[in-house]
Records
---
Amino acid sequence: MPADLPKRRALRAAACLGVGITIARFAPPVSPLAWFLLAMLMLGVGIVSRGRSATALLAAATILIGGGWYALRIQTVPADHIARRLTEQPSLITVEGMIVTAPRLIEERAGRLGRFMPASPRTHLELRVDRWFDNEGSAARVSGRLWLGADGDATNWPVGHRVRTTGMARAVAPPTNPGESDRRLWAAAGDIGGQLNIDAPGAITAASSAPNTAERIEASIRQRIEKLRANARAWLDNESHARSADRQPRALLRALLLGTHDRDMGELDDAFMRLGLTHILSISGLNLALLAGTMFFLLRFIGDRPRTEAVIAALAIIGYLLIIPVRAPVARSAIMVLSLLAGETAGRRYDRLTILGWAMIIVLLIQPLELFSPGFQLSFGVVAALMTLTHPVRARLFGERPQRDSHGTLRAAIELIKDAAASSLVAWAVASPLAAYHVGVFSPLGAIATVLLMPLVSVIMGAGYVALLATLAVPIIGEWAAPPLTAAAELLARLVFLIDAAPGTVVHLPRLSIAWTLLATAAVIWWLRPGGPTGIEGYSKPARLARWACTITTSAWLGVTLIAPSLTSSERMRLDTLDVSDGACHLLRIKQDAWHDEAVMFDCGSLRLTIGERTLPAAVRALGAWRVHTVFLSHPNVDHYSGLLDIVQPLGVRRVIIGECFQKAADRAPAGPVAFVLSELRRMGVEIRIVADGDFVEIAGARIEILSPPRGSTWKLDNDASLVCRITLPPRTPTVRSKTRRGEEGPIPPNATILFTGDIQREAIIALRERHPDLRPTILELPHHGSHNDASEDFVTAVNAPYIVQSTGPRRLNDPRWNDAREGRTWLTTAEVGAISITITPTGEFRVKEWKQ
């Protein structure tokens, strides 16, 4: 390396620290003491060594320190931590502690159907516990925090108060579906030991023990900060003087300036996502950089004082952090921007990438799990790319930037636009592979949308930040700033919708490997580096050939991924029943030939109305089935269709098959949720087909027959009008024998069948058995989530299916009335084992996988 180039040891140290954290996360748990002792040994030997061996030993010591730090922060639970007292099964507990986050009242249901569903107010907060009471009332010292949810309005207990409460508590649950992150890790990182639910605010009372001096000081500080936040944000949160038409622009302002999202955003959230602009709606390095840039711009009117400007910009950022809740992305961005400002203030020569490396180290030491978050990877990756690639890309596209003194104001504005175009192109190109890996989305118009919208976004953010900070001193300023900022936000929303209406705003992709992501990122950086497409400036002929080979390999790899079947050669059919708690969602994939399989979904709903926003698309993508063209909806109960509208675009739904009861429900209530869903499906160009007994659909060679209800039938209960579907696979092999989960063997027929029953109850079950007495499914969906009656038990016994799938929440788990029917069968319940996978191999063997281990 030439002597004049920075060595950037901080980047190497950050990389080694990241390697150690990664090893510790995925390797079997090791004591932190063992990690650190070995690190000290390596460090000692490295200090007395020379040359490359010393470098290798110091790198190994840093890796071991990273592993030990992860084990200490994430995998080590103190002996008195409340997490040691809780299990996944809820238990009644009484605790005392301090409220450490401001109570947040949620009065409306989230999701696209939330407006149709009544909801009771619910308060959320965090409680740092210090005393645990047993059944006799004896207290024990504990540590840690609890997520607390209270039915009703409990905001009269502000942050900093010591309280006592009794409720049902449980440990943080493990992931139960493919594609879900492990909340236990993030809970451990935040010192969270579990979740506490209480029935009413009255269950929260003043603590029996008085706070000590340190707690009183802490409570006073927390209350002052919360009051400061409330005063500074009042003009944004206040809707009493706003017109109804201003609700969405004001919600957009809150998202841009505070990073908060609420239902008033509506379709605007999705439009930002499709355009690849979601980073604008979360507090990130971009927001804090704009705040610092605004301060620099304003301070230039009083003269050129670089150090003073950097100090004041840093103070503005610190003041802003007092206004908003400092979550992990905010803290990460603040560390990054403040580190760069510290370099400016020092008055010495410095290398920005080196400072970025030190910022990475600080973030990982504060929170090692950040290494695996998309925000961390995108933030540091994009910032590093902007530092190193923007100038050469700008020079290649528009030429070198002229000196400011050599041109006027108009030319300066044009040059700024050129700079913005170059930086937007770099950020979009470098971020695209990572975005495709994490969320399966590619935004072709991302760079163009950023160039078009960022000037307006910058003005709104800059003026908004100044208004927030000024309101701390003069509250009336916020009221003055609200109308013009609301008008600007309304213009921004209209522009976003206008660009989003263009075709090809988003391309949804299948599950991609980390290896492809790294290769694609390398190819992008290779093309953006000085050398250009021809390579004549900086690359030798072998380097140019290698770059083309990397690009072609990446493209070919992506092409094969797009056309490859989601099922392997050892899978002929696979049924995945996702854990949606109280609801149902079954994904069935059938393989037609070596290069073609097809996916169909039976129901896609839950009482959690946001289930389709992330959980279902992430699970389907993690399973490899990124296209689901056909969805069957059994009946118009919200727990069977609430996720449908959210999955239409990401999963490519083209056809929805419903029963007559669905259309009748829409006709009875034209302003209701069922009619809304059907109208939205038609607006999105989805075909809606109504079927009844005797109809059938063929998918990938399999026959899907509708067995109930008969056309024109009426039922006393809406549940009885559920579609009953029998899926028959074409025979390929003779009868085989298969081991069940319990190790028992039973005959499996050559024509394997699956029976989906929806929520049919007594009358429909009796009628179904009369019309189809020969039902012998191999896999049976337990009717009505497992609600027991004598007809349903007789039905399960009569059809004698060797595999029973029960999609339900905890309240129907292990109902003893089903004990006799369980005997001799593999009975799989999502509330117990999470998502369920049943695979039929080409030889007829059945394999069962339970997601929750």
---
Amino acid sequence: MKGAVAVWCAVVGVGLSVPRCAYGQTAPDVIPATPRYAAVSEALTAFIEREMKDKGIPALSIALVDDQRVVWSRGFGRERPEPARPATAQTVYRVGSVSKLFTDIGIMQLVERRELDLDAPVQRYLPSFRPRNPSGVPITLRQLMSHHAGLVREPPVGHYFDDRAPTLAATVASMNRTTLVHTPGTTRKYSNAAIAVVGYLLERRGGVPFAQHLQRRVLAPMGLSSSAFDQRPALMARVPTAEMWTYHERTFDAPTFTLGMAPAGSMYATMPDLGRFLSMLFAGGMGTNGRVLRAATLDSMWRPQFAAAGATRGAGLGFQIGVVDGARVVEHGGAIYGFATQLSALPDAKLGVAVSAAKDGVNALTTRIAREALRLMRAARADSALPVVRHSRAVPLAIARGMAGDYGARDTLVTAYVRDSSVTLSGPMLEDHLGLRQWDGDTLIADDGLAFGPKVWLENGQLVINGKRLQRRPALTSLPAAPAEGVRGLIGEYGWDHNGLYILEREGQLTVLIEWFFEYPLTQVSENVYAFPASGLYSGERIEFVRDARGRGTIARAAGIDFRRRAISGEDGGVFRITPVAPVAALARAALAAQPPLEQGEFRAPELTELVSLDSTITLDIRYASDRNFMSTPFYSQPRAFLQRPAAEALVRAHRALKAQGYGLLIHDGYRPWYVTKMFWDGTPTDKHAFVADPARGSRHNRGCAVDLTMIDLATGQPILTTGGYDEMSDRSYPSYPGGTSRQRALREILRAAMEAEGFSVFEAEWWHFDYKDWRSYRIGNQRFEELGR
């Protein structure tokens, strides 16, 4: 820090508390386990390392607390991939909604000083805050802090999707454009908007920006020297590169913008700092640097609000109150772009845990780690044998294949999708897609980071999900019907690159996929208005569509937030196109002057075979022999398609098998000379390189063992339309893309099944690209079509 003398913090020894280190000063990368908790740390280490490998977690840190001491803390994985830097106890995480606890404590400090009344109308303190309130029942701080105020989930400005970093004042002012979803005090509805109001009140009463107020009044008295509500450089240097992911298996770096509703989710912290927070709770509100709250005030925060007398579970003031193995637990989770956090405490035993992971949405995992840690710590404290921490396993192939299919009726429909030994459940009754793993014998369990539980098994043709039985549905004998014209115009992608909204169709019903993971069936209210279901993130709220003159949706106003339709080249069946990063002529000169990479080893002799020579009924549409391709220029002088003979013969078998279903194969490309692959790579923007092969490694097309294709309807002669067009460089191209219509997804699966039956596998980012199983047996080729015989 400027003007300060550098001070080295003492290394923490066994049984010592974590040192108080100012920003930029050295703190221990590992806090060794005290003797009592050594076996606990070993059990958790084995569990965490296995879970991180199974679920692809880049970084995770944890801290265990026994009363006034952090008794173990360390990091796993890496903070940054380049230059490589491991995660440690001092890695800083975005802790998401755990932030709300600190905001609420700031309010309770003013309540203690009788500057605020929890049950007074909040307009007494914020006269300008006036959302539309048809009931006339006033909103109070108690309602806001326990999520019973009836407010919308997100403010119109400064919401979770808003990357413009508006001020807290602008965020709260925008709520005057909203209408309460419920009468205040009647219904629990989790609301980020509510805590933004709470934080703004602190800002107004304190006369300084919210982050500054929290730093002085809340974080500093607790001794949280590696925590803040603003992006301080010394902290940001220790924030890991976090990962976003989608159901269709695309990953990308998490965005880092500041939320307009900072009081609800913008805190940065290390796990030892959260450990010091837990110690403050166990000390009855006494922090490292002075008293934060009175013990009686904390007790009042740990009582379920708007609940029956004697309730032991529910929403407290900030804290979620519950019971774990008979013990009272007070806790809160946090989810923000790329990060998942769980903070849990047993206040009567004075044991606690804080854990955070640098992967989006994996709160089920951080919650489970916290639960297992508390169980292990209680056993160690009692000198009892430690409970076994169980692991799920990959599903055996025979069990996976036997589970594939549809179960239940329309409203309870569940589909089990099977890819090798991977089983995923999807359907309206589930809200999230559930990735299953083996638990006991034929019993599977949802265990994918997003969820842990329920248990699932097959019994007499029924799928049993936590005791609920769903009858297997007969295999479809015909394709799902196309949705009605009015519905079809609304289907598509809306919103931002960092967080979109998908409108899709399932079983004739319009459905929304929001915040990447949450899928809800919608109920039509009027021509352009649909309601979210009564449960879930957006319960009680609606989606209003704005259409253009053609009836196509241009805006999906979901819960008061405008998600604009994403423009995708070729979305309406046209040709997807990019602007090459260099002139095509220059790309060609460079590619023709270069040489393919040298390869060592034994390879089969090439036997490239023209596909139509094996079956003249195969239809060709060789896009690269015309300008109807993504770079708008011809790359081949002849519209021909070749594969190595074993691959060509397998493709012909797939083509003939599809005839029984009324389809044939339409070929876009097969063998591709290496120089063309180099032109594609060099001419494509780097953010779209997932869709083109790196010439330094060569393409499977170059080996004559990859084919780009779709199907043609033999009755009409027309190509089938699926979720995305050929060579479209968008999410719609992924073979597991969940959007579109039931009919489009069914057609995509028909093609995939036919190709996989003959030894092909689909490429991870392109539903139309299939690789033959023997592609490694052939060298990279660079011959032009003119050099290949007819």
